[in-house]
Amino acid sequence: MRRFTLTILPMLFLFLAVGFQSCQKDDEPKEFIADDNTFANFDTWSLDVTKQGMDPSLGAAHGGNDSTTVRKIYFKDGVKRSGDEYPIGATILKYSYNSNGQVNVRTGMVKRGNNFDAEHNNWEYFVLMPDGKIATDADGNKMRGVQLMNGACVSCHSGASSKDYIFTK
Ligand code: HEC
User: Fold this and answer.
1) Taking a C-beta distance cutoff of 8 angstroms, is the pair 122, 145 a contact?
2) Does the Cβ of 109 fall within 6 Å of ligand 1?
3) Looking at CB atoms within 10 Å, which of 3, 125, 167, 168 has the fewest?
4) Average pLDDT per run of 10 along the chain, which is 169 residues long?
5) Which pLDDT belongs to residue 61?
6) Is the CB of 55 under 6 A from ligand 1?
7) If you measure from the C-alpha of residue 62 to the centroid of ligand 1, how many angstroms do you get, rounded to a whole number?
8) Atom 40 of ligand 1, residue of closest alpha carbon
9) pLDDT of residue 15
10) Degrees (nearest 5) of the Cα angle 153, 127, 35?
11) Residue 70 CA: distances (Å) to CA of 55, 62, 99, 102, 130
């Protein structure tokens, strides 16, 4: 009995260890689909970048044509690139506002993965409500996707394609 335990235990351990490792691999998400909770409490995330004032390269986007605009960029869980790219599930929110209240916009990017938009590194673009929920346009459609704002988001962010489409970090 004793000998049996001595042989079987290490084998069991080995089996579990190998099993656990392969399990972890399978657990790596292939796709992350954001929902109304994904951007909740964004103002408690890591505020990694704050920009202020005009930026001619922005034009009117992100309120970049107004000298009083502040643009705060929050990275959920302080996410960073791993290698050249951000990991699947990486979630970034940019809050732009100005002194007269005319600019008051929350935009987001989520690394969705799963060949969602393989040509542009699989990011999904969002417009969000003040509480972080996904906004709805006048036709009742959720403001999300690659074609958001007729593709303006992805086309301008392509200027940062060498940095995985993220300008600031
Ligand atoms: C005309 C260019 C332009 C357009 C259009 C644009 N962006 Fe940006 N975006 C930028 C620049 C430049 C930054 C860097 C921060 C800054 O200078 O304010 C940025 C920053 C961001 C960030 C923070 C991550 C980063 O790249 O640093 C998010 C999130 C974001 N934009 C989302 C969007 C979404 C969603 C849309 C469409 C609704 C959009 N952007 C449209 C130029 C643009």
Assistant:
1) no
2) yes
3) 3
4) 58 52 61 98 97 89 90 98 96 96 96 97 98 97 97 97 96
5) 87
6) yes
7) 7
8) 153
9) 52
10) 115
11) 11, 9, 9, 12, 16
Does ligand 1 come within 6 angstroms of the Cβ of 125? yes
Q: Is residue 69 a contact partner of residue 56, using CB atoms and an 8 Å limit?
A: no
Q: Which residues contact 69 (CB under 8 A, 6 or more apart)?
A: 52, 53, 54, 62, 63, 96, 97, 98, 103
Span from the CA of 65 to the centroid of ligand 1 (angstroms)? 13
Mutate to test the pocket of ligand 1, among 66, 107, 143 (most ligand atoms within 8 A of CB): 107
The angle formed by the CA atoms of residues 18, 19 and 22, to the nearest 5 degrees, is 85
Q: Which two tokens stand for residue 24?
A: 């972890």
Give me the residue label for tokens 């009995």: 1
pLDDT at 149: 94
Structure-token pair, residue 120 = 């542009």
Ligand 1 centroid to 11 CA: how many Å? 54
The residue assigned the tokens 């003040």 is 130
154 with 120: CB under 8 angstroms?
Answer: yes
Residue-level pLDDT at 24: 44
- Atom from ligand 1 closest to the CA of residue 107: 35
pLDDT for the residue numbered 9: 56
